[in-house]
Amino acid sequence: MHWPTILFIAAVVAATAVELWLAARQVAAVEAHRDRIPEPFAGRLSAQDHRKAADYTVAKVRLGNIGTVINSAVILGLTVGGGIAALDGLWRRTGWAEPWLGLAVIATVAALVGVIGLPLSLWRTFRLEARFGFNRTTPMIFLADLGKGVLLAALIGGPLVLAVLVLMDRAGRWWWLAAFGCWLVVTLLITWAWPAFIAPLFNKFSPLEDASLKERIEALLARCGFRSSGVFVIDGSRRSAHGNAYFTGIGRHKRIVFFDTLLGQLAASEIEAVLAHELGHFRLHHVRQRLLVSFATMLAGFALLGWLAGRPAFYRVLGVPTPSPHAALLLFALAGPVALFFTTPVSSLWSRRHEFAADRFASKHASARELASALVKLYRDNASTLTPDPLYTAFYYSHPPALQRIARLTGDAPAA
Hints:
By secondary structure, this protein is mainly alpha-helical. The chain has a domain at 3-199. It has helices spanning 3-32, 47-78, 83-92, 100-131, 139-170, 175-198, 211-224, 260-265, 268-283, 286-308, 312-317, 325-340, 344-365, 368-381, 390-396, 402-412, and strands spanning 205-207, 231-234, 245-248, 255-259.
């Protein structure tokens, strides 16, 4: 076994060990505070709700541990374990040439990974979420969503993969630059099409009917200098009791979307404050910054892949004896996240800083106290833990812990 192969295996094992260690710390921290409500939440949260949040968090982490181990086993099995090489050998018996051979191998690997992950998804939806009273997804809705997801992956991902394989095979040494261009165009088209054509396949979108709330939202949009193509409510309650809100679309086609569950949880003033926070991300250019970083990361990834794809050692090290465009794509897709895992704390820190900045923006254009009140309700109704482990938080959390956010908001809020 070559030393780079040993290094890759060590990286997978190290990433898995770090994930499991952080998960153990999270479970210990949450369980240690299960019966003690943090002071800022005393009187706002019942002991029963606090214990439910602790138990829900622990259950999710433990289920996540199973997923972590399975994912690592799949990565090793498909790479150095010879999985990709075996599937490649089977499909070569058909006599197919590139790019159809590559498309068949990639589709088979994707299907295999999906099937392996399906039991965990079923357990999460129909056992874990149902146990804590959140699941409202029926088996028919689950199967319909699964079928639509597979169909969209085939209709969108299939042609993109096919185009990249053709470019790798025929476009010369700069194929990776053209491939990045294809990926960029498809990404922008999906972002544009999502609100009007893709998202409605999964949820029903209805214009916001509450006239007073709509007027309040429009006034907030005017104060913040934000234009959208409408405010919509989706039937999120068909699948889950969790509440949420988000923006979707680009340019003049941006939509503001509220889950019907969120509207049932919060007062109008709290909804306004939550929306002001989300508007902050746009006005402070957080969305643009994240897009640019993602584009730059993908460009660097394609450039690296372009360099690796021409080196036979890249394939041998990761368990594939026969170099090919599809093997290069699969190996890079499997090995890349292992290396990027160790950069997770940096992206998490950057995201948490954006959240604090959006909170400050909301405090200037709405009520900081109402945003704090909304957060208390959302943490309660979504059973989010209030006592996470500091290291787990630093590594994974894209949003600051509840106690930090509310302390800053109530400190910044004007006196009543």
